[in-house]
Amino acid sequence: MSQHNSHGAHSESHGSLKSYVIGFILSIVLTIIPLVVILNHMFSEGARIVIILIMAILQFAVQLVFFMHLKEGENARWNMMALALGLVILLTIVAGSIWIMTYNQVAH
User: Fold this and answer.
1) How far apart are the first and last CA of the chain?
2) DSSP-derived secondary structure letter, 14
3) Cα 75 → chain centroid
4) Phi/psi at 97 (nearest 5 deg)?
5) Across 2-31, average pLDDT
6) Which family is annotated (predicted)?
């Protein structure tokens, strides 16, 4: 009997077809927007970079919510905390690398 309950809980943690379709459509839209902006030379170069970065962040969020089911399941809180820690580490490494590359006067 416990096997049946654990199997039911496992299948509930997966998304529905509707959830996958919504995620897929959002992913396509978030991919097409920067493509259209770049191919049509819309906005200034700085604005294009900002649009690409925003769409990439939104794409990341869509992937986590609709396909990775980050907010679902019994460990959702721990998953969010692990993601936050990973993002802090990632941003620290990226910011530190940019800072070192920008202000490293020894190599010049």
Assistant:
1) 70
2) S
3) 19
4) -65, -45
5) 73
6) Belongs to the cytochrome c oxidase bacterial subunit 4 family.
Instruction: Give me the amino acid identity at 31.
Output: T
Two tokens, residue 68: 């990775």
Contact status, residue 73 vs residue 13, Cβ threshold 8 Å: yes
Closest CA to 64 of 23, 31, 7: 23
> Which residues lie closer than 8 Å to 19 by C-beta, 6 or more apart?
66
CA distances (Å), 33 to each of 28, 40, 49, 62, 68, in order? 9, 11, 12, 15, 23
What average pLDDT score do residues 33-57 get? Answer: 94
In angstroms, the CA 37 to CA 23 distance is: 22
